[in-house]
């Protein structure tokens, strides 16, 4: 038996007092549409290839993994195209860790990071953990970027790091390339465009990767968690100038990417067409679910991601609970009165529609 102090009795950093660990509920219910996962598991053939790669990695497990993950970064560069090479790519355990590296290198005490609210709820946590001051500027009422306000705020607040998610979580709305270009031109420090959901954007949507040649302090972040159906593999990455990547290498822990992660991510990349094959279907499902939600009279910002924000409810918690009672788990996130649902399989989406149809009449 060890001593068993309460958290209050431990000398926790003052700013962490009363904080809860981040994370949506992981509940074992029939329909889980709460964390923007890809609902399609890997095929049996892909599972075999992943297992074989883990077996090979196991044979060298007495050694530390390749610290710079160069082979994986080469594969990621080839996957992204745009003339990028391994030196332009950084990878870590999810884009959450990539972003922590960015704030570790470019934020810190006496420095600040700015985003456009509402946005991804982990951003303030990266800032807190790296002692970076956290600043937000509101989006417009339709959740699009207010570029004029953004430019004025950047000039006034001089943030060291600007974080822009496009498509944005939890609103699903995307910025235009011209808007992003204007932000890049005005950002006084580094700017990260978080494209975690880029693959779900409507066809023809340009990627911010196109802006990399013009802006040396820009990084474009991606993840294999969503479109790649690889959330459990934990692999996020970004593309930037080699010097930007060198800055991140200073703050990473040595051997941060395990041999298993590197090997498995390379297998997933080698199977990119298969891993990404359901994206088109998910996009179609997203569009029809969005149309259906609008048809019920709810407000639904246009989504370019694999989730949809909808509202507004006077008591969103009640709607969340009543969906959960019917076996459908969604997310209580975003501004007051709104809820977010991830796009699932056609069957899961139908279950969500059925459950919501039952409870909508008295949920306004
Ligand atoms: N950015 C955004 C906008 C997200 O929504 C998420 C996941 N919810 C992430 C980054 C992090 O993804 P991961 O760590 O799984 O790569």
From TrEMBL:
The keyword Ligase does not apply. Coiled coil: none annotated. GO terms for biological process: L-histidine biosynthetic process. Residues 1-25 are annotated as: Disordered. Pathway: Amino-acid biosynthesis; L-histidine biosynthesis; L-histidine from 5-phospho-alpha-D-ribose 1-diphosphate: step 7/9. It comes from the Bacteria. PROSITE patterns: AA_TRANSFER_CLASS_2 (PS00599). It catalyses: L-histidinol phosphate + 2-oxoglutarate = 3-(imidazol-4-yl)-2-oxopropyl phosphate + L-glutamate. Its EC number is 2.6.1.9. Residues 31-355 form the Aminotransferase class I/classII large domain. It is an enzyme of class 2 (transferase). Residues 10-20 have a biased composition (Basic and acidic residues). Its cofactor is pyridoxal 5'-phosphate. Keywords: Amino-acid biosynthesis, Aminotransferase, Histidine biosynthesis, Pyridoxal phosphate, Transferase. One of its GO terms (molecular function) is pyridoxal phosphate binding. InterPro entries: Aminotrans_II_pyridoxalP_BS, Aminotransferase_I/II_large, HisP_aminotrans, PyrdxlP-dep_Trfase, PyrdxlP-dep_Trfase_major, PyrdxlP-dep_Trfase_small. The modification N6-(pyridoxal phosphate)lysine is found at residue 226. Pfam families: Aminotran_1_2. Homodimer. Belongs to the class-II pyridoxal-phosphate-dependent aminotransferase family. Histidinol-phosphate aminotransferase subfamily. This is Histidinol-phosphate aminotransferase. It comes from Microlunatus elymi.
